[in-house]
Design goal:
The complex is a heterotrimer. Chain A is α/β, with parallel strands linked by helices. Chain A contains nine helices and twelve strands. Chain B has a domain of 178 residues. The chains are: A alpha/beta, B mainly alpha, C alpha+beta.
């Protein structure tokens, strides 16, 4: 994306300025209060593909209902952006991308409470057309009636993030115009930061030279998460990638956790996700940094999460 | 003398050329990623029709790729009916034909541009040199094959430029976001853009190295048509040369009615192939691309193409 | 009927004057000499017949050995159009003059998608051989090498390993060693310094493509190790894995 002219930059700032009144991005407006974290777990671990799909659907529903239902987050007429992980050209079984049935269920739940438009997209790391198709998310999203499109490189807008390290960065223009954002990551091992969870998943809403973030991943990720406070985070842990992440590829690295978590505290839900990989939340740089900046708490047990077993 | 109305074979030929040109672009646009790890069917259709690709490939590598045998159909058609392929099918030829038609109204100028020249032999020498090279393992026919030339130029120059122009236009509307109050231009432009992206535009802007050389050759090939009609087809194209050799004695030949001919040479002025349509006994079947322009141009309806029984009187 | 057919055939070899191709013998001789001499000139060049290997000549996976490839490739550009990452580019001098406009991969623009065989599906002459995805994933088109003078963890004591993050092989071909290094402030810090495992690396180039040192990458691919050339191998047993 070529440099914007000063006029366009100011225009973009004006747009985000309106949003700045409610918090960097006007997305964290849950209408009623309720539990901050809910964890749904399957007692069994079915192997048949249809059974796994059914498991993913039910877990997603139970997790969100455990927080009070989708109606707590999405209101009639909302424009919702569901941001799954569609970063990689991998099959769903390889656990590099979000489970498509989790995504499809979220779409249906949004429409059920009266959302006007549901958009599903991500700024893929691999080439976008194969990633969207191979992950199964394009097909699942279109079947559920959402708008699923590949991002257009011309639509990134230089936006003031006012973070500790990131002053401004290219954010996808259309995202700046939605009401609600649901972050839908998958739990994966990561070579550099040990685990990639929800806050890191937000890298998919920005463009530019994201490959520089890794030089200070803790701060860049938290700057992003501070700017984009999602309305809701739904964490896919039906399958998790335990090694050779975030791309994976070897089915032997994929393990079942049969869990879907939902929450409003980005730090807490990421801390929970870390434990699913056998890691301590404080060992992960961006979780500790986010906790220190009081973006949330990594002591997720103190939030008294609702645990649902089905 | 008033120019006669364009005759129906010429309209038929134009329809055929347009259809194959659109087909070429259709197959071009089909060469994209399809779920999962697939691409459009028949994207190399024109190459499968091309006997020069088959011949050069077999000579140089001693192996035959499946599918190229479709080109034998082209050989059979050419044996029987001459270089119809050049005049009615070849999309590169259509582009040359289009530019060649944009020429002077003055008959005398058109005679120079359209008339036969002995330099038209050069394409046979090009073909021979390329095939000899193939026998010894060097296959450079790809530089000169008309479909390779057109596809390469479309892929590296035309399509990226068009993609960039269209994308930049809609991107500029998106970024400046003009409108009056709540009525924004983007509410109209964005849906149009999405349709274009879904069916024509690339998922992300393609870029290529070395475009300068490619565009120079492509532009030269096209612009030389202003100097001589169908310059590429007459002087350079090795596929045209090959089809000219195969179509040396076609069953469909020209029939000139000498009684009505008054040597106005309007047929020569419009001749695309440079085949001497006015010359009794001098018509060159290897150069004729069967465009039927001579049939259309003759004010006395003195030219027609008909099946010629071999061995009978001319 | 038969006599008509024979007469028609005879016209091919003894055409009436106008139908003659009218080619000059001199022209054919010049053309023939041009063809033969070009062929032998190319054969005797340093690049021909596998004498030397050009590091930038990275061909798509499935490409046959170079002499056969050049004999088949018709420089049509279908592979360039279909490549989803825009990696395939028309060569200029990487393959010698005879390689002009043949496909080479330029990792700065794109990389070879691990789960893709599109170029092999569109090649009209099968200069890029069609194959199953599992077989393509075993093919090496080159190997990655780190430029330690530029790679950030080596040269500037900064963390990075975007290369390792993107490496698509199921067991990552890029591994790292945690090393204590000195910072400009003269303190000690630990960085992960990446290395290539040449047995696992397929040369796909996503590491080079994503490296943040944009102009001259900290990790880059060269053609050595390419499966299609048994002579262009660095390892004792290149197929050990």
């Amino acid at each position: 994306m070529a440099d914007c002219s000063r006029r366009r930059f100011l225009h973009a700032c004006a747009m985000t300025g309106a949003a700045l009144k409610l918090g960097p991005l006007a997305l964290n407006a849950a209408t009623t209060s309720g539990p901050a974290l809910s964890i749904a777990r399957y007692k069994t671990s079915p192997q048949a593909p249809e059974a796994i799909a059914e498991e993913a659907r039910r877990l997603t529903q139970e997790a969100v209902n455990g927080l009070g239902g989708m109606g707590r987050f999405i209101s009639r007429g909302d424009v919702v952006w569901i941001k799954p992980n569609i970063g990689w050209n991998r099959r769903p079984e390889q656990a590099a991308t979000t489970n498509p049935d989790v995504v499809a269920t979220l779409i249906s739940m949004c429409y059920a409470v009266g959302a006007k438009r549901v958009i599903v997209s991500d700024n893929s790391c691999n080439a976008a057309p194969p990633s969207f198709a191979h992950s199964g998310i394009q097909q699942a999203a279109e079947k559920a009636g959402a708008e699923c499109f590949i991002l257009d490189e011309r639509k990134f807008r230089k936006t003031a993030l006012q973070g500790k390290v990131l002053q401004s960065w290219d954010v996808y223009g259309d995202i700046l115009g939605v009401n609600k954002l649901i972050n839908a990551p998958i739990v994966k091992h990561h070579g550099l930061c040990k685990a990639t969870l929800g806050m890191k998943n937000l890298m998919g809403v920005v463009g530019g030279e994201r490959n520089r973030f890794h030089q200070d991943l803790s701060n860049t990720v938290v700057d992003l998460a501070t700017f984009i406070k999602p309305t809701l985070v739904v964490m896919d842990a039906v399958r998790v990638l335990t090694a050779n992440g975030p791309v994976g590829g070897n089915l032997a690295d994929v393990q079942r956790r049969d869990t879907v978590a939902a929450g409003t505290d980005q730090v807490a839900i990421d801390a929970f996700g870390a434990t699913l990989l056998g890691l301590k939340p404080q060992d992960i740089g961006y979780i500790a940094e986010a906790h220190n900046r009081k973006l949330g708490t990594m002591a997720f047990e103190t939030l008294k999460p609702r645990r649902i077993e089905i | 003398m008033a120019r006669p109305k364009t005759t129906w074979p010429v309209w038929l030929r134009r329809t055929s050329q347009s259809a194959f040109l659109l087909l070429f672009f259709y197959f071009f646009l089909q060469a994209v990623y399809r779920p999962i790890n697939q691409t459009g069917r028949g994207v190399d259709f024109f190459f499968q029709l091309d006997p020069l690709v088959l011949l050069s490939s077999v000579l140089a590598s001693h192996k035959v790729a499946a599918g190229l045998s479709l080109s034998l159909l082209t050989v059979v058609v050419t044996l029987l009916a001459g270089r119809w392929f050049c005049g009615w099918v070849c999309p590169f030829g259509t582009l040359h034909h289009l530019i060649s038609s944009w020429r002077s109204a003055r008959v005398k100028e058109r005679l120079t541009v359209g008339g036969y020249s002995r330099w038209q032999r050069s394409k046979y020498y090009v073909l021979f040199a390329l095939l000899v090279g193939c026998v010894f393992g060097l296959n450079l026919t790809g530089w000169f094959d008309p479909f390779s030339f057109l596809y390469r130029s479309t892929a590296t120059i035309i399509f990226p430029m068009a993609n960039d122009a269209i994308g930049s236009f809609f991107g500029w509307i998106y970024q400046t976001d003009p409108g009056i109050g709540p009525a924004k231009v983007t509410s109209v432009s964005e849906p149009i853009y999405e349709v274009l992206r879904r069916h024509f535009l690339a998922a992300s802007q393609p870029h290529f190295y070395g475009t300068t050389l490619l565009v120079l050759f492509f532009a030269a090939a096209l612009f030389l048509n202003l100097y001589r009609a169908r310059f590429w087809c007459r002087y350079v194209c090795p596929l045209g040369g090959l089809l000219g050799v195969i179509g040396k004695n076609p069953l469909v030949q020209i029939k000139q009615n000498q009684e009505v001919c008054n040597d106005c040479r309007l047929c020569v002025a419009d001749c695309q192939g440079g085949a001497n349509p006015d010359s009794a006994g001098g018509w060159k079947p290897s150069e004729c691309v069967y465009c039927w322009n001579c049939h259309s141009a003759c004010p006395h309806h003195g030219i027609v193409f008909a099946i010629h029984v071999p061995g009978g009187t001319k | 009927m038969i006599t008509s057919l024979l007469r028609w055939l005879k016209h091919f070899f003894q055409p009436p004057p106008a139908a003659k191709l009218d080619l000059k013998r001199r022209g054919l001789i010049v053309g023939g000499i041009a063809g033969v001499s070009s062929a032998f000139l190319v054969r005797s060049s340093a690049l021909g017949q596998g004498r030397t290997f050009s590091p930038e000549l990275i061909r798509p996976p499935g490409a046959t050995a170079e002499d056969d490839f050049l004999a088949r490739c018709i420089r049509c550009g279908e592979c360039m159009k279909v490549c989803p990452t825009n990696a395939i580019q028309p060569a200029l001098d990487e393959g010698g003059i005879e390689g002009l406009w043949t496909p080479v991969l330029k990792m700065r623009l794109g990389y070879c998608e691990y789960e893709c065989t599109l170029c092999s599906q569109v090649c009209p002459t099968q200069a890029i051989q069609r194959m199953h995805l599992e077989d393509k994933q075993k093919i090496k088109i080159g190997l990655a090498f780190f430029d330690r003078n530029r790679c950030l963890p080596y040269a500037s004591a900064r963390t990075c390993i975007v290369c390792e993050e993107h490496c698509p092989t199921p067991k990552k071909a890029i591994w790292f060693e945690e090393v204590q290094v000195m910072t400009p402030e003269r303190t000690l810090t630990t960085v992960k310094q990446p290395r290539v495992n040449p047995e696992l690396c397929t040369g796909c180039g996503i590491c080079e493509n994503k490296c943040p040192i944009t102009d001259m990458r900290g990790v880059y691919i060269t053609s050595v190790g390419e499966t299609r050339h048994p002579k262009n191998q660095p390892l004792l047993d290149p197929y050990a894995s």
